[in-house]
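Can you give me the bound-state structure? Components:
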Amino acid sequence: MDTLNILLVGFISIVIVNNLVFTKFLGICPYLGVSGRIDMAFGMGMAVTFVVTLSGTLTWLIDHLILMKMGLEVTRYVCFILVIAGAVQLVEMYIRKFFPSLYESFGIFLPLITTNCAILGLCLFINLWGIDNLLEAVVLSFGAGIGFTMAICIMAGIRENLNMADVPESLKGAPITLITAGLLTLAFMGFAGMIR
Amino acid sequence: MILADIYQLWSSAWPAGLTMLGLGSGFAVVLLIASIKLKVEIDPKIEQIHGALPNVDCGACGFAGCGQYAKAVSENPEFLGKCAPGGPETASKIALILNLQISDSGPPERPIVHCRANTADKTLYGKYKGIESCTAANSLANVQACKFGCLGFGDCTRACQFDALEMVDGLATVNYEKCTGCGACSRACPRNLIEMVPFAHEHMMTVACSNKETGKTARSMCKVGCIGCGLCAKKADTFSIEENLAHLDYKKYQPTEDTETAINKCPTCVIIYVGKSAPPPRQPAKKTAAAKT
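Here's the bound-state model for the whole set.
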């Protein structure tokens, strides 16, 4: 019961309170770049969720079983990037083999997940927060992916409606998107301090 | 002393290097196994065709992008020659890859805008202040007097990937030097003003109007609208009048003296030349005081 409680609180915390996009400002590139349409945004979110879960788990394992035992914490960044790049490659091959249509609709965004800083950020945060339990690391990674999906889908929904709005000439395009992102972040700042 | 430092550096660095090497080769093995197990067989011809295509993903061929078209054309040679931006060159390259003989598909298609009304020629009932898009403006009944003419909000210019269309004084104008004939503009226009026409000549004659109202109504709406008088049809047999609007049979069009007479006799100057180095259109005669008497 106690474990379940910790996991649940951790999950809600990473999705809403410590959302990587809204409060840590990570993964802004796909958050602004792929949020033009809801279906694309959702696909991107799902791909990121998968990769972040996989790489979060793997990096926790490598960090605890290899790097910490050998006192090689300095090489963390390099190792983590290695894991993420490998995971993305694996996911790409898997999707190409078994879901060709999904692969075609992702296009360039699939390899671009490698450079999504939200993923490396989460792997480092797991270490920073001192998570010493594999299960918790898995749940946090998955929650981070879900949080990213939620953020990008909310943004895509707003931007789809924004297309129809009467935006002042000088704010059209990127400026209004950035303002929207700022307001959205402000709204989610309201959750700060709720848990952890 | 320096030697000792180097030794120390080496002794503390090698475990890190070895670990990285181990991890890297571990992933390499996993990915190698995965790439063999999850290998997708791709016809090398598809990749070759994809390489020969212009890679602009314009959708003129009717597929989502160049990748899909390459796949389709390799399976079904019927689709050969559908690539408008690539033109005959690309078609012959693909034919070479697929070991096919290519038949002449005729002159390339280019868009023609069936309207020539600039802002000053149009009759407007009021000022439209809605969404700046032809599709939105078109849903409003009385956005301008002519129900057929160019709205001038530039849906076609936004659809064009080649920067070949621009709005000149409220009228979509094709730059035939840049146009590749993909037809995106023709699909984008909510009023179906832009027609894809086989361009057999350097410049083509065209009826630059779509107004199907009777002569009097058309004249009240627009200074350069077709009034359906039928003078052109009398002068040249490639012209015909349907629903108060002159039509030109673009497939049969040949520049002759008859068509030249037709263009000069047209009372509202609605028949014009378009294309590369096209002569400027005749301007409708101003009704001066002398003309009235």
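A couple of observations. The longest strand of chain B covers residues 109-113. The radius of gyration of chain B is 29 Å.
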